[in-house]
Sequence to fold (421 residues):
Amino acid sequence: MALKSFLQVHPDSHFPIQNLPFGVFKPQSTSHPRPAVAISDYVLDLSEIALAGLFDGPILKESDCFLQPNLNKFVAMGRPAWKEARATLQKLLSSTEPALRDNEILKQKSLLPMSNVEMLLPIAIGDYTDFFSSLHHAKNCGLIFRGPQNPVLPNWFRLPIAYHGRASSIVVSGTDVIRPRGQGHPAGDSPPYFGPSKKLDFELEMAAVVGPGNDLGKPIDVNEAKDHIFGLVLMNDWSARDIQAWEYVPLGPFLGKSFATTISPWIVTLDALDPFACDTPKQDPHPLPYLAEKISKNYDISLEVQIKPAGQEDSSVVTRSNFKHLYWTVTQQLAHHTVNGCNLRPGDLLGTGTISGPEPDSLGCLLELTWNGQNELSLNGTARKFLQDGDEVIISGSSKGDGYTVGFGTCSGKILPSLSC
Fold:
């Protein structure tokens, strides 16, 4: 018999009882942050559930992890605690369990309309790494910048390429993004251009939230890496393509990337995504032993990007992609990150890199969709090569089950004009 909540959940809701993603919210602007899960159109305040003594399993019974202002203490506890919390919450929210269903006072205190609360970053992010794990994206970028002779360099097929990003500029969905300023390519013999970016772009990504992590000098085995990933979020790694192109040789991303990265507020656990596990693309050549997984899986998560142009009420879908297109898995990414002894910590964020598919309408950024501005997109009759001030980018993602949907909600941000000195 299918699991069913005592709360009414629309079949298209991203947050049925089969999902229960974790986040952090404030009931009012003056309130303290508190952990929650999403269920239907509500947030379930986990601090109230904990104070009521309903986390009565052996791991969580004495823990104050849900009385914290973020999820870091909980994600550090590892998969046994995650499973216990999920099982407890599914039981409490089920249609057959009276403990919460029939307790009107506790329901009133703990179940709050999602539309009435403020969502925050769910974790304190100490470090952020961004990978480059989509073959279609890597190939298109190579064609744009290097030409057809050698679009994907040989090392890309041997290891998950990445760079270390800037954790301080990661913001939660709904936060406005100020157009960055920086240098761009000079015209002829003139000095480099300096000013607001003229090629502001989105990047359709997802990111893994690190759980327990590892001690310095002790790598994580690729076949144990899943136990160190709490879940996934949607991510938009905004990019200033003109700043990026001028500064990236010889070192790599810096000011073209570090001004803002947006993530969705809800972390969908790998346990909720397990029913949607699917095969990975064939990796050729075969990975080196430390990257060779006994069981290699991706997840079938449909992804969509919409742009709402400045001054318009309606948004336009500009791309539809899927998490399953990733060449390197999130577990391979995590194992590679630690193979040199680098220590990951609870709450660290590992971005997948832009997720592009094989079709023209499945490309994960405007750089690819407009072929670096050579072509135009039509958004309800409004032309775009790159993002303009006032444009809003809305990313969504979900997996379809039998009569239910496991989703991430949305990851959105609006572009504001550059600030002058």
User: Anything to note?
Assistant: The chain is about 15% helix and 25% strand. The mean pLDDT is 97. The first strand starts at residue 22 and ends at 26.
